[in-house]
From TrEMBL:
CDD domains hit by this protein: AmyAc_Glg_BE, E_set_GBE_prok_N
Protein name: 1,4-alpha-glucan branching enzyme GlgB
Record pathway: Glycan biosynthesis; glycogen biosynthesis
Described function: Catalyzes the formation of the alpha-1,6-glucosidic linkages in glycogen by scission of a 1,4-alpha-linked oligosaccharide from growing alpha-1,4-glucan chains and the subsequent attachment of the oligosaccharide to the alpha-1,6 position.
Quaternary data: Monomer.
Enzyme class: transferase
GO molecular function, one term: 1,4-alpha-glucan branching enzyme activity
Family assignment from sequence similarity: Belongs to the glycosyl hydrolase 13 family. GlgB subfamily.
Length: 737
């Protein structure tokens, strides 16, 4: 048990606190309250001093209930002190009384510190990988009492206090102990438990009281618009997902089927009154739907705490707290476990690129630019009016790296999709000349951010095998998904933004003009294996006036549906993992809004149901055919069959992998059926049609080849003559005898 060292320096010869100390404690301006309050040795005996506003009388007791002494009121504001009949230093309880009644409280200043010298060492070094066990609010038993230990980093503050409903939000009552070597302030407050709102009251270096701050390490937060942090029990969920986690620990995700359903938890479905579903309600609806539709993963847009609904979670103020919008943190743990038991992985959108400047958040946290750069040329993001993390500060890097580890450990998430990586990598991102500061070598690369991303990826992959990281990176930065020891950033995958841009541009053209844009489709294969790619048709494509994927397709309504089905099959046959934003799997007609649920009634209509059935069948084929997924990231798994038929806007290629039959993917992107069309194939024999997006079951015209084609060897080559349905993609699988 750690004891506070004896401190009687502020006492007079009679053992009484100095008048200056008393006044400073009552005013809340004392820089070291532990030197005054609590139990102190004086003349081989002990005195107790406490600050109890509203009290007129205070009696001291040991934790076992033995009376230890009467304390005298030195100041009407509530400062008491007196001698104790104790033989050894120990924590105290006080019985306080006034004309209106009485109450009990345990003295936080009679307890020793919780953090130790090893914590100081690793925190100062920036190598502490369990900060989430040390900082924030933790319910603990300490020196014979139960309560909450609070710890927060604020190295430039003159004073930091814990305030909450347990002390009338009075910053004078629970001023914290500063650990000078690290700038960590800590305090154990007995007799409070889970569910108590709190914030930090911070006096900055200039003596000015800042707006109350939420805890950067809060594990639970109040429901917006309230912004306080909330004390919370540690996660108590009993996990049952060993089979799922063991599979991914031992798998190479590049060679597994990964088909991601991107979800905004606040608008996938809503209650009839417009309120959010809880995590348990989402588990009961979303998980079965994802299983039925055939996706392998759910990727949530940010679910950490954020104050503003229209930010979709990208303006996060509580990186360690699942948003209170959907219930208690344990509810999210139950959701992840339920998904895992159903064979579904859960990926979180993670935002280390920037943070909002809300007064209760990280901005100007201790009265200085602590988490952000002071110079707006490095510390302010013009695109989002947000602050940018100071990646050159080891404590900030440690805060973010620990957060990535936290979600993997505490909530068993399967991956982190890292938002806006390009904005982190370039110092001149969205800035004109003179608005940015070159790096130490005179370049535009943010070397500190590069180092942070490499460190984060090394720690995640090193401590949590089976968890993947995915970069949203829109430039040609090299080796994003290459290992750090090979000069890469260390991500597992990278979003292929070029695929999304080029293909959507192509399909927005009227079919008669597509022959002039043939290269929009073929160009992507030039770089398709330079990274481990995810092909994203994400939320970014269906907001801010961009409409929907269905609306982007050219032509009349029939052509739009046919083209969208053909596009999906083209994408599922294209090398790379898949991602589709919610609602696009059934051809949502209205642009997505976070303020309303998806238009689920559309599934009652044949054409919309046909798109959903197409996606469902594509997911089944993708997962069940190694040729379609096992070499998504390797050029050996892809070869062109038809690359230059721009006149007919026809494309064909072969997908192959060890352990599976080859699959040919043939797309006709005009509304004209092509009869007797010759398609080169590598093997003579029967090729079975495994999907045809023009099938009548999907809402198509029903044209096809009777379920199979025959490839024959003629003149030294092998080919099949077949019908290419209009605006369609057909997949053929070799069917050996």
């Amino acid at each position: 048990m750690r004891k506070p060292r004896a401190t009687a320096a502020t006492s007079g010869p009679d053992g009484l606190a100095s008048a200056g100390d008393v006044a400073a404690i009552v005013a809340g301006t004392h820089g070291d309250p532990f030197a005054v309050l609590g139990v102190h040795e004086v003349d081989k005996g002990f005195v107790a001093r406490c600050f109890v506003p509203h009290a007129e009388f205070v009696t001291a007791y040991t934790l076992t209930g033995k009376k230890a002494g009467e304390l005298s009121r030195r100041d009407a504001g509530g400062f008491f002190e007196g001698r104790l009949s104790l033989r050894k230093r120990q924590p105290l309880r006080y019985h306080a009384r006034n004309a209106g009644g009485d109450w009990w409280l345990t003295d936080p200043y009679s307890f020793g510190p919780v953090l130790g010298p090893l914590d100081d060492y690793y925190i100062a070094e920036g190598s502490h990988l369990r900060l989430f066990d040390k900082l924030g609010a933790h319910l603990i038993d300490h020196e014979g009492a139960s309560g909450v230990h609070f710890a927060v980093w604020a190295p430039n503050a003159k004073r930091v206090s814990v305030v909450g409903d347990f002390n009338e939000w009075d910053g004078r009552r629970h001023t914290m102990r500063v650990r000078r070597d690290t700038g960590i302030w800590e305090l154990f407050i007995p007799d409070i438990g889970a569910g108590r709102p709190y914030k930090y009251e911070i006096i900055g270096p200039d003596g000015v009281r800042l707006p109350l701050k939420a805890d950067p390490f809060a594990f639970k937060s109040e429901l917006r618009p309230a912004t306080a942090s909330v004390t919370a029990l540690p996660p108590a969920h009993q996990w049952g997902d060993d089979a799922h986690r063991n599979f991914w620990r031992n798998a190479d995700p590049r060679r597994e089927a990964v088909s991601i359903y991107e979800v905004h938890a606040g608008s996938w479905q809503l209650h009839d009154d417009g309120s959010f579903l809880s995590w348990d309600e989402l588990a009961g609806r979303l998980i079965p739907y994802v299983v039925d539709t055939g996706f392998t993963h759910i990727e949530f847009m940010p679910i950490s705490e954020h104050p503003y609904d229209p930010s979709w979670g990208y303006q996060t103020t509580g990186l360690y707290a699942p948003s209170a919008r959907f219930g208690d943190p344990d509810g999210f743990a139950r959701f992840v476990d339920g998904a895992h038991r159903a064979g579904i992985g859960v990926i979180l959108d993670w935002v280390p690129a920037h943070f909002p400047v809300d007064a209760h958040g990280l901005a100007n946290f201790d009265g200085t630019a602590l988490y952000e750069h002071a110079d707006p040329r490095k510390g302010f993001h013009p695109d989002w009016n947000t602050a940018i993390y100071n990646f050159g500060r080891r404590e900030v890097v440690s805060f973010l790296v620990n957060n990535a580890l936290f979600w993997a450990e505490k909530y068993h998430v399967d991956g982190l999709r890292v938002d806006a990586v390009a904005s982190m990598l370039y110092l001149d991102y969205s800035r004109r000349a003179g608005e940015w500061i070159p790096n130490e070598k005179g370049g535009r690369e943010n070397l500190e951010a590069v180092s942070f991303l490499q460190r984060m990826n090394k720690e995640v992959y090193g401590h949590h095998p089976g968890v993947v990281t995915i970069a949203e990176e829109s430039t040609s930065w090299p080796k994003v998904s290459q290992p750090v020891d090979e000069g890469g950033l260390g991500f597992g995958f990278k979003w292929n933004m070029g695929f999304m841009h080029d293909t959507l541009e192509y399909f927005s053209k009227e079919p008669i003009f597509r022959k002039h844009h043939h290269g929009d489709i073929t160009f992507g294969l030039v770089y398709a294996f330079s990274e481990n790619f995810v092909l994203p048709l994400s939320h970014d494509e269906v907001v801010h006036g961009k409409g929907t994927l269905l609306g982007k397709m050219a032509g009349d309504d029939w052509q739009k549906f046919a083209t969208l089905r053909a596009y999906y099959a083209f994408m599922w046959g294209y090398p790379g993992k898949k991602l589709l934003f919610m609602g696009q799997e059934f051809a949502q007609r209205r642009e997505w809004s976070e303020a309303r649920a998806l238009d689920w009634n559309l599934l009652d209509f044949r054409l919309h149901r046909g798109v959903w059935q197409t996606v469902r069948d594509l997911n089944y084929l993708y997962r069940s055919r190694p040729a379609l997924h096992a070499r998504d990231c390797e050029p050996e798994g892809f070869s062109w069959l038809i690359v230059d038929d721009s006149a007919n806007s026809v494309f064909a290629w072969l997908r192959s992998a060890p352990g599976g039959n080859p699959v040919a993917v043939i797309s006709n992107f005009t509304p004209v059926p092509r009869d007797n069309y010759r398609v080169p194939l590598p093997i003579a024999g029967t090729w079975r049609e495994i999907i045809n997006t023009d099938a009548s079951d999907y809402g198509g015209s029903g044209k096809g080849n009777g379920g199979a084609v025959e490839a024959r060897a003629e003149g030294g080559s092998i080919s099949a003559t077949m019908l290419l349905p209009p605006l369609s993609t057909v997949m053929l699988e070799f069917a050996p005898e």
